[in-house]
Amino acid sequence: xxxxxxxxxxxxxxxxxxxxxxxxxxxxxxxxxxxxxxxxxxxxxxxxxxxxxxxxxxxxxxxxxxxxxxxxxxxxxxxxxxxxxxxxxxxxxxxxxxxxxxxxxxxxxxxxxxxxxxxxxxxxxxxxxxxxxxxxxxxxxxxxxxxxxxxxxxxxxxxxxxxxxxxxxxxxxxxxxxxxxxxxxxxxxxxxxxxxxxxxxxxxxxxxxxxxxxxxxxxxxxxxxxxxxxxxxxxxxxxxxxxxxxxxxxxxxxxxxxxxxxxxxxxxxxxxxxxxxxxxxxxxxxxxxxxxxxxxxxxxxxxxxx
Length: 306
Prior knowledge:
306 residues; alpha+beta; 8 strands
């Protein structure tokens, strides 16, 4: 049967291709009849491209580099933090080490003032500390002796009366109501330019008291616990009484303690010298402090002892 090449096929019918069988118009292809797509990898040796119709493997969601997934895994590994027992122990040890270093730095800064002092200054300061310790030990021994005398005395009432009178005399010296004498020093402060102020003389009194002074008199004015200094130069006053230079301090105490206390580096003597004033110290075996203050009866306070 001859076929005209210019003749068009009838609608609904197609000319079967080579290698295919003709199908009736009413039949359908089922999925089972379709050939399965098998991914064919490219040849490793020849580098040939995969044949047409081959399915390539799926790419990762984050792209070729996988950057977002890597960052997400890193963030998940860091947060929330997972603290182990070893990390807690290390943190505790570091905290203890830092606390110890802070204490060491603090103690070093406190002792920096003495670190730069000269050797003779350090020896002098150490001697003053030893002297103060010795004075406290002597006071302790004296009080213990008084207690033992009271306990062992056959006439305890008479012994108590004697100790009371002795205590009254000591308090009278401190209050300035009785005269006193004993070893000590005489300090003379000259002020040719009138630069000495009241606070400088007060520093002298404080330094003498710290060194163990028991009785002090300045230009005929007895210095007691409530003594105050005002003015300066030509109008220097002690407890309201005007005094003039040179200022003469009569001090009863141990001369070996009083004189070094005034001459320590940066002490009152050097301070006065910076103001063009001079201070001279003279030791004496007998100093008389005879300036007295009137005994004041308290207005409200009364003894609570029977």
